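Recall that a protein's primary structure is simply its ordered list of amino acids. Everything else, from secondary elements to tertiary packing, is in principle encoded there. The following example makes that idea concrete.
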Amino acid sequence: MSTDILEKDLTSLFGIDALPPKERDEFLEDIGSLVMESTISRLMTDMSEEEQEKVVEVVTASEDPEDILENLEKAYPQINQLFMEEVTAFKEEAIAVMAAE
């Protein structure tokens, strides 16, 4: 995994920093949700139906994203690695899209 891409701040590249604070926060929250969804999807890929149901239980046990992440980390230590891989993939794809424009 490229640590360089993880350290890139994409807010100025995409003009996110120019958005009003409320819109910027909502945009970043949406991106975070997308990345978390893809991370959970990857986590569940090779699981049995029973194991997948346990993941759903962990995710639905709270509405607070921080609690959900903490519970996932406790139950599935590999989630952090998967999350970082998904962040990297998102950033690489976003940069490629912006470079193509």
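The first helix runs from residue 3 to 7. The radius of gyration is 15 Å.
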